[in-house]
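Raw record, unedited: HTH marR-type domain-containing protein
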Amino acid sequence: METNDPARLDDMLCFAVYSTGLAFNRLYKRLLDQLGLTYPQYIAILALAQKDGQSVSELGDQLFLESNTLTPLIKRLEAAGLVSRRRDSADERVVRVDLTERGRALLADLQCVPEEVAKAAGITLDQLHAMQDGLAALRTNLRAGE
């Protein structure tokens, strides 16, 4: 059988990314279940830790999530006491999201997640970051072609 056959699943980059994503989902579920978070909630908290007070629109753009997915996610985080929502004082149509003290306290528990991911993958944090950089560049290039 010919190798690098574009019709073979194992030879398709898109399938490797897809199936790796599924493996990541299983790993993150195991890691985050202990903290009572889903993966989308986890990345929302990390995004707010980088820049608190983002509008729902900004947060959605950063996380590649549509508002119909993001709004219920934010409401669940708010019900858990991890974030608060408020109307922007300059434009009442804009809703801003902030981490609460409880949300900030959770960040300490989340610090071990990247190390656990690297450990599960059998690679170093530097290797993990190099892969992330490559995939981010690939994503940027693919989105530019849309």
